[in-house]
Design goal:
This is Dihydrofolate reductase. The protein is an alpha/beta fold and 192 residues long. It has one domain: Dihydrofolate Reductase, subunit A, CATH 3.40.430.10. The chain has four helices and twelve strands. The strands form three sheets. Strands 7-6-5-8-1-9-12-11 form an eight-stranded mixed sheet, sandwiched between helices.
């Protein structure tokens, strides 16, 4: 089975979006360098961020996200983001009307079903879990192996918390830390 990694860019005060679900400057680091991160011509980062992020992205087979993220992104137009092979959406609602059943998206109604489906699809590759409510629920259930944060130098004051509504303590190992341009890359192993 592949490792399960909870991930997002995050403000220094712990938010992945503001109160209106807007990321503000959280992704500015992805356009603040001179090294192309992909073939889009849009994403350019520092060399440190490229080495860290590209290696991570290349390992991800499946992303798990909640219905809120799915709806906010319009389901990525049926194409998984960042070259990921599949997306598993945790939701109690059916796929949107007119949704292409051939799109590599899988709709499940529990975090446990999401973890099982994602592991089946990923094999030995990484499963990424979007931070926020679904990621926090999976961490609380002991289904996350690693926490990655790209910490951006902005304070939101309020918004959508990185760990969602997690209300219990979870210990993480010492962080691995890399500094990019306008971002601090943190990586923690979860203590089980």
């Amino acid at each position: 089975m592949g490792k399960v990694v909870m991930y997002s860019s995050v403000s220094v005060d712990g938010f992945i979006a503001d109160a209106n679900d807007q990321p503000g400057p959280l992704f500015d680091w992805l356009t603040s360098g001179d090294v192309p991160l992909d073939d889009s011509g849009v994403l350019n980062v520092s060399q440190v961020s490229y080495d860290y992020t590209r290696a991570y992205w290349d390992q991800i087979a499946v992303t798990i996200a909640g219905r809120r993220v799915f709806d906010l992104t319009d389901g990525w137009d049926g194409k998984p983001p960042g070259g990921v092979d599949h997306v598993v959406v945790v939701t109690h609602r059916p796929p949107p009307e007119g949704w292409d059943p051939e799109a590599p998206f899988h709709f499940v109604n529990t975090i446990e079903a999401a973890a099982t489906k994602a592991q089946q699809l990923a094999g030995d590759r990484l499963v990424e879990v979007a931070a926020g409510d679904v990621g926090g629920q999976m961490l609380a259930a002991g289904l996350v192996d690693e926490v990655r944060m790209d910490v951006v130098p902005v304070a939101f004051g309020s918004g959508k918390p990185y760990f969602g509504s997690v209300s219990t303590q979870h210990l993480l190992d010492n962080p691995e830390v890399l500094q990019g341009n306008r971002v601090l890359h943190l990586r923690y192993q979860v203590q089980h």
